[in-house]
Amino acid sequence: MKQSDKYAEILKKGDLRATKQRYAILEVLDCNGAPVSAEDLYIQLKRKGIPISLSTVYRILDAFQEKGIVVRSNFPDVSKAVYELFCEEHHHHLLCVDCRRVFPVEGCPLEDYERLIEERLNFTVKGHNLEVYGHCKDCKKKT
Amino acid sequence: MKQSDKYAEILKKGDLRATKQRYAILEVLDCNGAPVSAEDLYIQLKRKGIPISLSTVYRILDAFQEKGIVVRSNFPDVSKAVYELFCEEHHHHLLCVDCRRVFPVEGCPLEDYERLIEERLNFTVKGHNLEVYGHCKDCKKKT
DNA sequence: GTTCCTGCAAATAATTTGCATACCT
DNA sequence: AGGTATGCAAATTATTTGCAGGAAC
């Protein structure tokens, strides 16, 4: 299946019209392994020559998040939201507080914890938001 | 030790002058078990008759965070930051997406995970931010 | 007295909204 | 054609900053 067909399918499933801007956002998110802010996304799109406005970026991300196409989260100490494509293999990120790069980590240690919360506290867990921060390999070297 | 002495000590340790506003913020944070936003804090202070401005609240929270007196975090889907007193017993929160109340949970499941990250990825973990969300006991009943 | 803190108002940053036009189906 | 999406500019919300006066040490 071609990439663009994949995007078309995602949009159809979400009952969203296929537009150039939506395709472009899906493509950029797909290439960026890590979460991106609305503004970064906007800059990347402009750089690629896609005609789009920042408010459209926000509106599309909102729509995507509503349909479960993207996931929004926040890094500690950063006041803007970041977005990434929803991905079957649930995972987390490492944020380097020095270079600010983001590294994905496979897997998630929270399954047991969530089960425990459900049992002990009678709280139905819908999901969680976990960000781990510290110093990456490269930044450690520099010091 | 009196409560106010405790606050005085916290401020002294942080090299911060003892002012009415700082005492009041420590007190409000101490009473709220859960994290609060700057604005909520401001409203609670005003209600108590404390003369303070919103920018002072922000400035104090900033200073406190710098000194490690408070911890700032973000709840998913909420664009404003929340703050709580730093607490020796590291813990997390449950956010009910219905009533928006926040419940503390003792303990943290991430120690092993962090050790694993340090070993496998050569990334020095400084900390993490975890928020779990879902439906609390009471809100489940209502449906 | 000196330095730090606070209040006010204005600035900035992040996000949202109204409305007219343009584009999908 | 009909309804939805987009762009632009203006509105809102969250947070920060400059500066003058006030309080802590």
The rounded distance between the terminal residues' Cα atoms of chain A is 47 Å
The helix/strand series of chain A, from N terminus to C terminus, equals HHEHHEEEEHEH
Query: Which percent range fits the helix content of chain A?
Result: 40-55%
Overall number of structural domains of chain A: 2
Which two protein chains have the largest interface (Cβ within 8 Å of the partner's Cβ), and how many residues from each? A-B, 37 and 37 residues
The Rg value of chain A, from CA coordinates, equals 17 Å
Sheet/helix structural class of chain A:
alpha+beta
Q: Find the CATH topology of the largest domain in chain A.
A: Arc Repressor Mutant, subunit A
Report the CATH architecture of the largest domain in chain A. Answer: Orthogonal Bundle
Tell me about this structure.
The structure is a homodimer of 143-residue chains. With 143 residues, chain A is of the alpha+beta class. In chain A, 44% of the residues lie in helices and 23% in strands. The first copy, chain A, has six helices and six strands, in the order ααβααββββαβα. Chain A has a three-stranded antiparallel beta sheet. Chain A has a three-stranded mixed beta sheet with strand order 5-4-6. In chain A, strand 2 and strand 3 (81-85) form a beta hairpin. In chain A, helix 1 packs across helix 2 (20-31) and helix 3 (38-47) crosses helix 4 (54-66). The relative contact order of chain A is 0.13. Chain A binds chain B through residues 72-77, 79, 81, 94, 96-97, 103, 105, 109-110, 112-114, 117, 121-137, 140, and chain B through 72-77, 79, 81, 94, 96-97, 103, 105, 109-110, 112-114, 117, 121-137, 140. Strand 6 of chain A pairs antiparallel with strand 6 (124-135) of chain B. Chain A binds a DNA duplex (25 and 25 nucleotides) through helix 2 and helix 4.
